[in-house]
Amino acid sequence: MNTQRTLLLSASRTGNSAYLAHALPMIEQLIDADCRKILFVPYAGVTINNREYSHMVQRALSPLGIEVQGIHEFDKPDQAVFDADAIFVGGGNTFRLLERLYALQLLEPIRIRVAEGMPYVGWSAGSNVAGPTICTTNDMPIIQPPSLTSLGLVPFQLNPHYTEWTQSDHNGETRLQRLTEYLALTPSQKVLAMPEGNALRIDGDKAQVIGDPKSFWITAGGIKTEIESYRPFDL
Protein backbone atom coordinates (compact mmCIF):
# COMPACT_ATOMS: atom_id res chain seq x y z
CA MET A 1 0.00 0.00 0.00
CA ASN A 2 1.34 3.41 -0.99
CA THR A 3 1.29 5.74 2.02
CA GLN A 4 3.24 8.61 0.48
CA ARG A 5 2.45 12.12 1.80
CA THR A 6 4.24 14.70 -0.28
CA LEU A 7 3.90 18.42 -0.97
CA LEU A 8 5.85 19.85 -3.91
CA LEU A 9 5.76 23.64 -4.05
CA SER A 10 6.63 25.57 -7.17
CA ALA A 11 8.36 28.28 -5.14
CA SER A 12 9.08 29.50 -1.62
CA ARG A 13 7.06 32.66 -2.24
CA THR A 14 4.17 33.91 -4.30
CA GLY A 15 4.37 37.52 -5.41
CA ASN A 16 5.79 39.68 -2.61
CA SER A 17 4.69 37.40 0.21
CA ALA A 18 6.98 36.50 3.09
CA TYR A 19 9.19 33.42 2.83
CA LEU A 20 7.01 30.25 2.79
CA ALA A 21 4.02 32.27 4.10
CA HIS A 22 1.68 31.08 1.34
CA ALA A 23 2.71 27.47 2.02
CA LEU A 24 1.97 27.37 5.75
CA PRO A 25 -1.69 26.26 5.37
CA MET A 26 -0.65 23.56 2.88
CA ILE A 27 2.11 22.31 5.19
CA GLU A 28 -0.19 22.32 8.21
CA GLN A 29 -2.70 20.17 6.34
CA LEU A 30 -0.01 17.70 5.29
CA ILE A 31 1.73 16.93 8.57
CA ASP A 32 0.29 15.23 11.64
CA ALA A 33 -0.09 16.97 15.00
CA ASP A 34 2.71 14.81 16.43
CA CYS A 35 5.08 15.70 13.56
CA ARG A 36 7.12 18.38 15.30
CA LYS A 37 10.76 17.66 14.39
CA ILE A 38 11.62 18.47 10.81
CA LEU A 39 14.83 17.48 9.07
CA PHE A 40 15.79 20.21 6.61
CA VAL A 41 18.05 19.68 3.60
CA PRO A 42 19.74 23.03 2.75
CA TYR A 43 22.20 21.86 0.10
CA ALA A 44 20.61 23.70 -2.84
CA GLY A 45 21.48 27.02 -1.22
CA VAL A 46 24.75 27.86 -2.96
CA THR A 47 25.00 31.51 -1.88
CA ILE A 48 23.64 30.99 1.63
CA ASN A 49 25.36 28.70 4.10
CA ASN A 50 23.64 25.67 5.60
CA ARG A 51 23.23 27.21 9.04
CA GLU A 52 21.70 30.47 7.80
CA TYR A 53 19.38 28.62 5.44
CA SER A 54 18.14 26.33 8.20
CA HIS A 55 17.52 29.29 10.50
CA MET A 56 15.55 31.06 7.78
CA VAL A 57 13.30 28.03 7.38
CA GLN A 58 12.93 27.72 11.16
CA ARG A 59 11.71 31.32 11.37
CA ALA A 60 9.28 30.81 8.50
CA LEU A 61 7.77 27.65 10.04
CA SER A 62 7.66 28.94 13.63
CA PRO A 63 3.91 29.79 13.44
CA LEU A 64 3.29 26.03 13.10
CA GLY A 65 5.31 25.19 16.22
CA ILE A 66 7.75 23.14 14.18
CA GLU A 67 11.36 22.50 15.22
CA VAL A 68 13.76 22.53 12.27
CA GLN A 69 17.18 20.87 12.32
CA GLY A 70 19.52 20.97 9.36
CA ILE A 71 20.77 17.64 8.09
CA HIS A 72 24.29 19.10 7.96
CA GLU A 73 24.35 19.03 11.78
CA PHE A 74 24.37 15.23 11.88
CA ASP A 75 27.44 13.01 11.72
CA LYS A 76 25.34 10.34 9.99
CA PRO A 77 22.92 12.16 7.69
CA ASP A 78 21.48 8.92 6.31
CA GLN A 79 20.47 7.84 9.82
CA ALA A 80 19.00 11.31 10.42
CA VAL A 81 16.62 10.65 7.52
CA PHE A 82 15.45 7.40 9.10
CA ASP A 83 14.95 9.12 12.47
CA ALA A 84 13.08 12.20 11.19
CA ASP A 85 9.37 12.93 11.57
CA ALA A 86 9.40 14.70 8.19
CA ILE A 87 11.89 15.97 5.65
CA PHE A 88 11.84 19.38 3.99
CA VAL A 89 14.09 20.09 0.99
CA GLY A 90 14.73 23.72 0.10
CA GLY A 91 15.21 25.52 -3.18
CA GLY A 92 18.30 26.89 -4.84
CA ASN A 93 20.41 25.13 -7.46
CA THR A 94 19.09 21.70 -8.40
CA PHE A 95 22.44 20.38 -9.66
CA ARG A 96 24.18 21.25 -6.40
CA LEU A 97 21.36 19.66 -4.40
CA LEU A 98 21.45 16.41 -6.35
CA GLU A 99 25.24 16.27 -6.23
CA ARG A 100 25.10 16.43 -2.42
CA LEU A 101 22.33 13.82 -2.21
CA TYR A 102 24.55 11.44 -4.19
CA ALA A 103 27.72 12.30 -2.26
CA LEU A 104 26.03 11.66 1.10
CA GLN A 105 24.13 8.59 -0.16
CA LEU A 106 20.76 10.07 0.77
CA LEU A 107 18.62 9.21 -2.24
CA GLU A 108 17.68 5.70 -1.18
CA PRO A 109 17.03 6.56 2.51
CA ILE A 110 14.69 9.37 1.41
CA ARG A 111 12.88 7.07 -1.04
CA ILE A 112 12.41 4.43 1.66
CA ARG A 113 11.10 6.85 4.29
CA VAL A 114 8.74 8.60 1.87
CA ALA A 115 7.34 5.22 0.80
CA GLU A 116 6.76 4.47 4.49
CA GLY A 117 4.67 7.64 4.83
CA MET A 118 7.15 10.19 6.14
CA PRO A 119 5.99 13.62 4.90
CA TYR A 120 8.19 15.19 2.25
CA VAL A 121 7.94 18.91 1.48
CA GLY A 122 10.03 20.44 -1.28
CA TRP A 123 10.10 23.78 -3.02
CA SER A 124 11.78 24.79 -6.28
CA ALA A 125 14.93 22.60 -6.44
CA GLY A 126 13.45 20.47 -3.65
CA SER A 127 10.50 19.78 -5.93
CA ASN A 128 12.66 19.22 -9.01
CA VAL A 129 14.48 16.31 -7.38
CA ALA A 130 11.17 14.58 -6.66
CA GLY A 131 10.80 13.73 -10.35
CA PRO A 132 12.51 10.87 -12.20
CA THR A 133 15.33 13.19 -13.35
CA ILE A 134 16.29 16.85 -13.03
CA CYS A 135 16.34 17.30 -16.82
CA THR A 136 13.55 19.91 -16.70
CA THR A 137 15.05 22.19 -14.06
CA ASN A 138 15.61 25.85 -14.94
CA ASP A 139 19.01 25.91 -13.23
CA MET A 140 22.52 26.10 -14.63
CA PRO A 141 24.69 22.97 -14.19
CA ILE A 142 27.19 24.64 -11.87
CA ILE A 143 28.38 21.25 -10.62
CA GLN A 144 28.09 17.76 -12.11
CA PRO A 145 26.24 15.11 -10.11
CA PRO A 146 27.04 11.47 -10.90
CA SER A 147 23.70 11.17 -12.68
CA LEU A 148 20.65 13.29 -13.53
CA THR A 149 18.43 10.56 -12.07
CA SER A 150 16.74 11.84 -8.93
CA LEU A 151 14.26 10.61 -6.31
CA GLY A 152 11.43 9.48 -8.58
CA LEU A 153 8.70 10.18 -6.02
CA VAL A 154 6.41 10.96 -8.95
CA PRO A 155 6.50 9.29 -12.39
CA PHE A 156 6.59 12.55 -14.40
CA GLN A 157 8.96 15.47 -14.80
CA LEU A 158 8.45 18.77 -12.98
CA ASN A 159 9.13 22.35 -13.94
CA PRO A 160 8.69 24.69 -10.96
CA HIS A 161 8.57 28.47 -11.56
CA TYR A 162 6.87 27.84 -14.90
CA THR A 163 6.08 31.07 -16.71
CA GLU A 164 4.92 32.13 -20.14
CA TRP A 165 6.20 35.67 -19.72
CA THR A 166 8.27 36.91 -22.65
CA GLN A 167 10.27 40.06 -23.27
CA SER A 168 9.67 41.68 -26.64
CA ASP A 169 13.34 42.35 -27.43
CA HIS A 170 14.67 39.03 -26.08
CA ASN A 171 15.51 36.40 -28.68
CA GLY A 172 16.12 33.40 -26.43
CA GLU A 173 13.82 30.41 -26.13
CA THR A 174 10.70 30.52 -23.98
CA ARG A 175 10.18 28.07 -21.14
CA LEU A 176 7.67 26.15 -23.26
CA GLN A 177 10.19 25.88 -26.10
CA ARG A 178 12.84 24.52 -23.74
CA LEU A 179 10.46 21.90 -22.34
CA THR A 180 9.39 20.99 -25.87
CA GLU A 181 13.07 20.32 -26.70
CA TYR A 182 13.27 17.90 -23.77
CA LEU A 183 10.09 16.14 -24.91
CA ALA A 184 11.35 15.89 -28.48
CA LEU A 185 14.10 13.59 -27.17
CA THR A 186 11.96 11.95 -24.47
CA PRO A 187 8.50 11.75 -26.09
CA SER A 188 7.18 9.13 -23.68
CA GLN A 189 7.46 11.55 -20.75
CA LYS A 190 5.28 14.46 -19.70
CA VAL A 191 6.09 17.56 -17.68
CA LEU A 192 4.07 19.13 -14.90
CA ALA A 193 4.53 22.87 -15.48
CA MET A 194 3.94 24.63 -12.14
CA PRO A 195 3.53 28.43 -12.02
CA GLU A 196 4.51 30.12 -8.78
CA GLY A 197 1.77 30.01 -6.16
CA ASN A 198 0.65 26.42 -6.60
CA ALA A 199 1.80 23.00 -5.49
CA LEU A 200 1.33 19.29 -6.03
CA ARG A 201 -0.13 17.37 -3.09
CA ILE A 202 0.29 13.59 -3.07
CA ASP A 203 -1.57 11.18 -0.80
CA GLY A 204 -0.81 7.56 -1.54
CA ASP A 205 -1.64 6.85 -5.19
CA LYS A 206 -3.59 10.08 -5.65
CA ALA A 207 -2.33 13.55 -6.45
CA GLN A 208 -3.87 16.96 -6.98
CA VAL A 209 -2.71 20.43 -7.91
CA ILE A 210 -3.54 22.96 -5.21
CA GLY A 211 -3.22 26.72 -5.07
CA ASP A 212 -3.36 29.25 -7.86
CA PRO A 213 -2.78 29.84 -10.79
CA LYS A 214 -3.40 26.80 -12.99
CA SER A 215 -0.77 24.18 -13.73
CA PHE A 216 -0.35 22.40 -17.06
CA TRP A 217 0.68 19.06 -18.49
CA ILE A 218 3.11 19.53 -21.35
CA THR A 219 3.60 16.59 -23.68
CA ALA A 220 5.53 15.84 -26.89
CA GLY A 221 5.18 18.56 -29.49
CA GLY A 222 4.68 21.20 -26.82
CA ILE A 223 1.04 20.31 -26.36
CA LYS A 224 -0.23 22.05 -23.23
CA THR A 225 -3.24 20.83 -21.24
CA GLU A 226 -4.65 22.78 -18.31
CA ILE A 227 -5.05 20.86 -15.05
CA GLU A 228 -8.13 21.40 -12.93
CA SER A 229 -7.01 22.42 -9.46
CA TYR A 230 -8.13 20.38 -6.44
CA ARG A 231 -9.28 17.50 -8.63
CA PRO A 232 -7.47 14.27 -7.64
CA PHE A 233 -5.84 12.14 -10.31
CA ASP A 234 -4.04 8.81 -10.24
CA LEU A 235 -0.26 8.76 -10.16
UniProtKB/TrEMBL annotation:
<keyword id="KW-0224">Dipeptidase</keyword>
<keyword id="KW-0378">Hydrolase</keyword>
<dbReference type="GO" id="GO:0008236">
    <property type="term" value="F:serine-type peptidase activity"/>
</dbReference>
<keyword id="KW-0645">Protease</keyword>
<comment type="similarity">
    <text>Belongs to the peptidase S51 family.</text>
</comment>
<protein>
    <submittedName>
        <fullName>Dipeptidase PepE</fullName>
        <ecNumber>3.4.13.21</ecNumber>
    </submittedName>
</protein>
<dbReference type="GO" id="GO:0006508">
    <property type="term" value="P:proteolysis"/>
</dbReference>
<dbReference type="InterPro" id="IPR029062">
    <property type="entry name" value="Class_I_gatase-like"/>
</dbReference>
<dbReference type="GO" id="GO:0016805">
    <property type="term" value="F:dipeptidase activity"/>
</dbReference>
<keyword id="KW-0720">Serine protease</keyword>
<dbReference type="Pfam" id="PF03575">
    <property type="entry name" value="Peptidase_S51"/>
</dbReference>
<dbReference type="InterPro" id="IPR005320">
    <property type="entry name" value="Peptidase_S51"/>
</dbReference>
